[in-house]
Amino acid sequence: MKHIQSAKNPKIKEWKKLLTKKERDKSGTFLVEGFHLVEEALQGNQIKEIIISENKDMPPGWDYGDIPVTMVTDEIIGQLADTETPQGVFAVCSQERSSEAVKGKRFLLIDAVQDPGNLGTMIRTADAAGIDAVIVGEGSVDSYNPKVLRSAQGSHFHLPVKRGNLFDWVGRLKENNVPVYGTALENAREYTKYESSESFALIVGNEGSGVNKELLANTDANLYIPIFGKSESLNVAVAAGILLYHLRK
Amino acid sequence: MKHIQSAKNPKIKEWKKLLTKKERDKSGTFLVEGFHLVEEALQGNQIKEIIISENKDMPPGWDYGDIPVTMVTDEIIGQLADTETPQGVFAVCSQERSSEAVKGKRFLLIDAVQDPGNLGTMIRTADAAGIDAVIVGEGSVDSYNPKVLRSAQGSHFHLPVKRGNLFDWVGRLKENNVPVYGTALENAREYTKYESSESFALIVGNEGSGVNKELLANTDANLYIPIFGKSESLNVAVAAGILLYHLRK
Predict the structure, then answer these.
(1) Distance from CA of A128 to the nearest CA of B (A)
(2) Which residues, in sequence order, are CB contacts of A95 under 8 Å at separation 6+?
(3) CATH code, residues A106-247
(4) Is A235 exposed, middle or buried (0-12, 13-18, 19+ CB in 10 A)?
(5) Domain A2-94 shares a fold with domain A106-247
(6) What CATH number belongs to B2-94?
(7) Of B125, B235, B241, the CB nearest to A124
(8) pTM: predicted TM-score of the whole model, two decimal places
(9) Cβ separation of B125 and A235 shorter than 8 Å?
(10) For a pLDDT cut of 70, what percent of chain A falls above it?
(11) What is the ipTM, given to two decimal places?
(12) Residue in A with minimal Cα distance to B237
């Protein structure tokens, strides 16, 4: 096990770069933090290296084979962490899974969702609902952002989370006879009018402006969730949960 | 309109106290921030006074009658704000609505939910689903916490959000023949087995440990949402949305 004690070690600089989207994409990797996420990444077979505090032990149950492990000081841990009280363990993971050819019958398409908690929660919900892949469109927060990873609680390692052009995706899904449902507050039908189906793609959109109008014009149908009380709308991750479970069950 | 320029003015100290739960409860008031929330509070008739930046104008559409308005410096705004880029307007609101006698047929009971975003999102979702009141049990984050207020997007002014002892509530609801449903991962029935009903109470629980076991022993039934994929569970606010809309529709 290597042991790095100097914060000036060039490895530290390399890891810190993974805090920006640009550098994550350049290297094709991302950083996950905390025992639960590192364990999920191990099971998902996506780890390139592990970084652990010199004051922590590797959990005895972890089968990390010949994955390199580096011990570092808590000062270095603090520099890499996005949380205020880091658990003291990180893994550098490969983005490779996201280049997997996507197969399946059920898809969640995400159009310009900005809030990392919302995106992460939707990836977690899509996983729970047995969705085959999440497609993150342009204008959305990066799916490897530390807060997205935290909210998704490891679901990145369970199903493909791919970036893509949603217009291309909608076209391709329709060619393959997958019904594509948008979500909208106007010119839409109540979701309960649609039964669960073997295959579908659901598009959810930006917290303020919803799904792009041109995308909505290309769907098979657009759905809305009725508001029985006085709130103006639902949180996008809650709406995605209601619709995915309705269409899935 | 009063104009306060000194950060040492005793009014400022009084307002700043509202950043803590203890002082909010002592005064029976709470502070909301931003144009949307202040407008909702105005419509909900719960405002005692308005605080606005000397660099902002009161929106012409606001009918604030004889509610006192105080102009303050942006430095003072910054001291009161929970957000990084405050909009420059606050209202001191009365908690009174929460002392309203609760009537109705549909209830959401919240047991020890810790995350302010989750609690706020559930209050917003309960409003959307036409729930008559939200009962926040002991051990939950304070419902007047600024982050809870922000996530709820004004729903505090649409339906009663009351603190209460959940054991007392469950007892009283059952006496009134309101079916009480807990949520649990074990010893529970799939939620789709239950049809929508005219009246119900749903209990959701802590992010880590779920609903208190003794409470679960006192319900009419406990529900679970199936996990079709590999995630361990759903976010509590997403689960609440799926269940409320299923029971409500």
Answers:
(1) 5
(2) A24, A25, A28, A29, A30, A144
(3) 3.40.1280.10
(4) buried
(5) no
(6) 3.30.1330.30
(7) B235
(8) 0.95
(9) yes
(10) 98
(11) 0.95
(12) A238
